[in-house]
Amino acid sequence: MEPLFVIKVGGNVIDDAAVLDQFLADFAAMKGNKILIHGGGKLATDLAAQLGIEQQMVDGRRITDKETLKVVTMVYAGLINKTIVAKLQAGHCTAMGICGADNNAIQAHKRINATIDYGFVGDVDTVNASFIDGALKQGTTLIVAPITHDGKGTLLNTNADTMAQEIAKAMSPYYKVQLVFSFDKPGVLLDKDDNSSVIPTIDKASFEQLKSTNKIVAGMIPKLENAFKALDQGIETVRLGRAQDLPKLIKGDAGTIIVHGK
Amino acid sequence: MEPLFVIKVGGNVIDDAAVLDQFLADFAAMKGNKILIHGGGKLATDLAAQLGIEQQMVDGRRITDKETLKVVTMVYAGLINKTIVAKLQAGHCTAMGICGADNNAIQAHKRINATIDYGFVGDVDTVNASFIDGALKQGTTLIVAPITHDGKGTLLNTNADTMAQEIAKAMSPYYKVQLVFSFDKPGVLLDKDDNSSVIPTIDKASFEQLKSTNKIVAGMIPKLENAFKALDQGIETVRLGRAQDLPKLIKGDAGTIIVHGK
Known about the structure:
The structure is a homodimer.
Chain A: E1 3-9, H1 11-14, H2 17-29, E2 33-38, H3 43-50, E3 57-58, E4 61-62, H4 66-90, E5 95-98, E6 106-110, E7 122-127, H5 129-137, E8 141-144, E9 147-149, E10 155-157, H6 160-171, E11 176-183, E12 201-202, H7 204-212, H8 220-232, E13 237-242, H9 246-251, E14 256-258
Helix pairs in contact in A: 2-4, 3-4
């Protein structure tokens, strides 16, 4: 099987034009199969504020009411997605921007929760692997905005990390999938205040040890648990690191690689 | 050659949710090869006003400054495009929303004008016919937002009528192209105040006669001249009529059909 890099780029990177440009130049230059999933950054929050749309947060999660759905659709699937596509085309990468509604790429359902109504938030049901495979075989690089649809005409706001993981999982029967989370940290740190304390490799055994000795930042634990779940689902490796280090992340020369281990 | 319907739907239709829904249901039900190009409607103007972005008009044309470009990219390529795609998917039409930057579908250059700087307005240079043909052959219906790019990383605001005509022209070596302009009028009228005065067919000879006898609304003349130019470029017919009449327009049972004639 051929390798496929499924790369999520975080909101902090989107917000910094110089970092984003460098990241996109590096991404455009990457050979082989690749898919980019982008987050939203501060732009949607800023636009909602400018329009006087009040943002409700419950447990750190944004409630997506009807007006907020319009804002995220405009910002994620419109402005950010097409800006990225135009820049990649300039870098000679045949990019095509999509959201989950396009070609029924990612179908979701409105989140069901007994106590909190998250509004127009989607949890992923299906990924159209044959469409994605077809695009890859034609040399097209898909740029995915974190918006899905329910198949009944409604768009839904969906977490970009989850979308990256679901796409990676769906493609793993056909490719050796490398799932990369690129953001503003150099990887998983032993000491959260020391960027040089990156742990190069984590497998299940070392993860249990890190957890039991409290050597890992609490906020990192669910991310790593998700990563191991991804490995159980057939994904080859999960990599975490700085967007600025993309070429090194791809080669395994920077960031943290999470592997199954023995 | 197989027939291909290249359909432009106007801004007034986009602005009316009930009319748009009916139009999309009819469009989804159409058999065969089809492409939809949509205009912008009032949404972009409204959003710009809400954001306090002043809209400059020169000779009835909007000047697209940097902030306005962001607004039209959000509204056209984001909100309108993805709303249409989600609704078509619900109608079992395999729709994929694109702008000109996606897969380098439509490349343009920033308009050059000695006296007026239109800002980020694009005039079309090339249409990627092989990409569009590939999508059609896979049964994908492209939904095109009126945004292009210059190949150097910059998005450009482009007239949707022009985009429809350029796509129709580019596809005419491979398909029998029927170019349809669907809007809020029943066709070309003999009497602008009488919607029952639709002229069913216009060819070059009858157009010259209508012009010389002043029997045609002045505003319609450039549209018709463009239509005849389209026919000279290999497009089979140009049809104009109401979005509500789409099924009849397709069959030739409503609206005005413009043909080359003898």
